[in-house]
Amino acid sequence: MTWFKGLFSKKHADEQTDTPFQDNATAQDDGFNRFNRQAGAGPKHSLPTFQGTASDQLREGHRGPLDQVRFRLRDAFTPSRPITRPQMFAGRTHILRSLIRAIEEQHLHVVIYGERGIGKTSLLNILADLAQNAKYLVRYVSCSEGAEFENTFRAILRDIPLLYHRDYTPTSDEAEQGKTLEDLAGSETLTVARATDILARLSNTRVVIILDEFDRALNPAFRASIAELIKSLSDRSIRVQLVIGGVAASLTELIDRIPSIRRNIYGMQIPNMSDEEIANLIQNGQSVSGLEFGPDVMRFITSLSCGSPYLASLISQYAGIIAVDRESKLVTRADVVQAIRQSLDEIRSRLQPTLHYRIDQAYVDGLGPMLGLLACTALNAGGTLQPSTVKELAATEGWQDGFLDNLDKKYNLVSKIPGDPTDSYQFSDEGSPTYLWLRYADHEICRKESGKNT
Ligand SMILES: Nc1ncnc2c1ncn2[C@@H]1O[C@H](COP(=O)(O)OP(=O)(O)O)[C@@H](O)[C@H]1O
Ligand SMILES: [Mg+2]
After folding, report:
1. How far is the CA of 83 from the centre of ligand 2 (A)?
2. How far is the CA of 267 from the centre of ligand 1 (A)?
3. Separation between Cα atoms, residue 325 and residue 320, nearest integer Å
4. Are 116 and 433 within 8 A, CB to CB?
5. Is the CB of 122 under 6 A from ligand 1?
6. What gap in Å lies between CA 435 and CA 362, rounded to an integer?
7. Domains and CATH numbers, the chain
8. What pairs with residue 242 in β-bridges?
9. How far is the CA of 278 from the centre of ligand 2 (A)?
10. Is 452 in the pocket of ligand 1 (CB under 6 A)?
11. Relative to the alpha carbon of 270, which ligand is closest?
12. Whose Cα sits closest to atom 24 in ligand 1?
């Protein structure tokens, strides 16, 4: 329980001096009001403009060095978009190595799970890329609420050319006409058995089917079909492997349906990122954007992120934008402090109004610090509030017995994890720990920073 200690008490001189950016910018560009750069600037031209075109070109009047940094920043930190480019993918090498081994050497189906924002989709994107480089046929499906086996697997079969079917040579008429495995499915309902029969005839390739956001697929029939498919593919050693990503509960359910598939599955919980991995994420963003995050600032962002790549990316992006708005390439601690507030506003806007209300009630009752510290605990432990950790925290903070029960019954902010043998709790809303932690950090840090500056 030491990760947040020091964050608020750390003596930080913010040793870096924030030198304004200087380079080959023309004198006219220096400190020049962006909006007045356009020809004929005047009242009617004072609206802000897009700085780039839809084809990713910087527009006339927006080509100063800082404009370029601002423009590159959108690819440097992408908290709202999973990583797709290997050069932007930080850390996780040992996880990738294990997943590759499970697929390539053990021919297992893979299930990865973890909290939202922990980096599952990014990991799956990079895994897909690596498999494609090794000539696997990779088909990626992001499951939707109404996902059905028939539609999903028809689309997958439609994407596999007939030339990979052992009964058709690449020069056969059908293969040359661009037919696909879906043409073999006919018009009758595509059952798991029929799909397995078709996939059993694959030759000369291996197929990896990625089913991401599996927890979003609410249809029990779909989940049951996937469990059945894993069983039949494994029983017949078919050259197709499923890689499934989602939050834990949906995947436990998947395995519970057919317990015997457990031995055909390699399951992995995606852990929080280490400090080195978060630093690596910031360094990647630094190289792409041209911004500079000093070591002190990097440590600050790392401790605020609680191992979440999403939080690290969000705070770094806002801090970068704030630095560029100051016409500087150097991101300072003060920029990060402002970035916390802006990140908090963004996350708050996504919470349900009833959740706002319940949190605000708890704050009015003086429970803000407790919620902040519990949120930090949950973020560091894959979303769970384990009794041993919580007990230790309660002893340090002097909380009365029964505080979790109170947060559950009175405010409905936490709840017992159903069926958990350790009697752990979790936050009732999956988005709330991030919000509560940042709200606490904002309050504590701003209080300290303003004390320091006065
Ligand atoms: N390995 C990584 N390197 C750099 N950034 C990452 C990495 N993993 C995740 N991120 C960042 O965190 C955000 C959330 O990741 P994502 O893959 O969408 O998580 P999940 O699928 O678990 O919800 C992404 O938008 C991305 O910016
Ligand atoms: Mg995802």
Report:
1. 10
2. 19
3. 9
4. no
5. yes
6. 14
7. 61-83+274-348 (1.10.8), 92-269 (3.40.50.300), 353-453 (1.10.10)
8. 209
9. 18
10. no
11. 1
12. 82
Q: Taking a C-beta distance cutoff of 8 angstroms, is the pair 432, 426 a contact?
A: no
Enclosing H/E stretch for 217: none
| Protein residues with C-beta less than 5 angstroms from the ion ligand 2 | 120-121
Sequence-ordered strand ranges (E) for 147-278: 207-212, 240-246, 265-269
CA 311 to ligand 1 centroid distance, Å: 9
Distance 75 CA to ligand 1 centre (A): 13
* Phi-psi region at 429: left, alpha or beta (left = phi > 0; alpha = psi -120 to 50): beta
Among 81, 83, 113, say which to mutate for ligand 1: greatest number of ligand atoms within 8 Å of CB: 83
Q: Which residue is closest in CA terms to ligand 1's atom 15?
A: 119
| Helix, strand, coil abundance in the chain, percent, nearest 5 | 50, 10, 40
pLDDT by 10s per residue, the chain, length 454: 444 555 655 444 444 434 333 333 333 343 434 444 444 445 566 777 777 777 777 667 666 777 788 888 989 999 999 999 999 999 999 999 999 999 999 999 999 999 889 999 999 999 999 999 999 999 999 999 989 999 999 999 999 988 888 887 777 777 677 788 888 888 889 999 999 999 999 988 999 999 999 988 888 889 889 999 999 999 888 999 999 998 776 567 667 776 778 889 999 999 999 999 999 999 999 999 999 999 999 999 999 999 999 999 999 999 999 999 999 999 999 999 999 999 999 999 989 999 999 999 999 999 999 999 999 999 998 889 999 999 999 999 999 889 999 999 999 999 999 888 888 999 999 889 999 999 999 998 877 766 665 4
Q: How far is the CA of 249 from the centre of ligand 2 (A)?
A: 15
The two structure tokens encoding residue 226: 């996937």
For atom 6 of ligand 1, the residue with the nearest CA is 309
